[in-house]
Amino acid sequence: MKTFKELRLIGPVQRALAEENYETPTPIQAQTIPAALEGRDVLGSAQTGTGKTAAFSLPILNRLGQHPRKARPNRPQVLILAPTRELAIQIEESISTYGRHLKVRRTSVFGGVSQIRQVRTLNRGVHILVATPGRLLDLMNQGHIDLADLDVFVLDEADRMLDMGFLPDLRRIISKLPEKRQSLFFSATLPPKIVELTETLLTDPVKVDVAPKARSVDQIEQRILHVDRSRKQAILQKILGEDDVDRAIVFTKTKRGANMVAEKLMRNGVRATAIHGNKSQSARQRALEAFRKRRVQVLVATDVAARGIDIDGISHVVNYDMPIEPEAYVHRIGRTGRAGAEGIALSFCTSAERRELRAIEQLIGHKVPVCPDHPQSAAGDERPPAGSRPRRGGSRPRRPGQRPQRRRDGEGRSDSPAQGPEGQNRRRRRPRRKGQRRNEGAGQTG
Ligand code: AMP
Description:
Layout (H helix, E strand, L loop, with lengths): L10 H9 L7 H11 L4 E4 L6 H15 L11 E4 L3 H14 L7 E4 L6 H9 L3 E4 L1 H9 L10 E4 L2 H6 L3 H9 L6 E6 L4 H10 L4 E4 L2 H8 E7 L5 H9 L7 E4 L3 H13 L4 E4 L5 H12 L5 E4 L1 H4 L9 E4 L6 H8 L9 E7 L4 H11 L56 H7 L19
Helix pairs in contact: 2-3, 3-4, 6-8, 15-16
The structure holds adenosine monophosphate.
């Protein structure tokens, strides 16, 4: 196993890594960093959780530290494209951590917020720009970003960008890149469209495949719970009350579903919050921050919103709804068991979701074992969660255990009002007593 010292990174970068207690490079880092330091293009198949952010950030910082050039207004030297605002912000944060002993100016730009501050920062000049494709193009079209000075281009989570419909934007951006540049390309999966894209973008790339699926999936203990739709919430409540659940992400199919699950959890004294695309940028940031700082134990998320969430110590991922796309299963469960830690992924499967389960099992190449601890018939699941009372907000009470009718096609449209961490504290009916363990609440469900 290589050490960071052997990777011959400059002193200030080594120092930051030591401060972060990074000792050995992860496989993607061990393979990507030397190639990138030589100036080669890289095609990395790796998903979040493998250490890929450092894999591309460290050689970039190394280069900027070794050959410093003044940051000129509106002309970044490095462009990193990411599919979501959350990921863009996280990448920028990682760069500021690893680059803290260097005089490197960086910023991130993304949609959903005013562009005024972004434009001002770009005007002052940055070395590294992290961007989502839509906002980048907007700013380029308005003349606030010129890619003529670009030395390095990074495309992160390319497959997700395609899933999100960014291919036309990507093509437009790529057409504006200078001919002479280094390109680093990362994608969890390499479907044909991605391969096509890499062919237009990369020159004789070094291919780094850290076999993320097999590895990350195998590191995670996975279980299926065959459940009735109407029991999902009660069973979730029970699971979250168990001893070993430290921090969990619960995935729902729709935004509406995310809100409802989070609200019900809160009414039962679980510190939960929802995060999805209908929330304002600041509400999403607040929710993530609350989760990161452990003010919130459970994040209820949709796939798009959860993409790129980089938070260590997530003990459990619960698929409240099965993902439609089997690849999303791998992305979802990859949120737990990060950086070698072990994690547990539990998936609720109704009879209507068996087809999704079969597709997942086909993708990962084996059957997911059924969870023996939570048989559907468990007595505790028969009764409604203790807190399923009418909402203070006045929406119509439902029968105990009854799940509301909801759109089943894609993400729900109308969401209940945003509930930042502050909102949920206000709503919480039964706060956990000081010192009360989570599992004491388990009895509430049964
Ligand atoms: P990423 O795949 O870039 O999202 O990284 C996943 C997590 O692993 C992040 O929380 C990083 O801080 C952490 N990490 C990355 N590289 C290392 C390393 N070499 N040693 C320890 N932790 C790391």
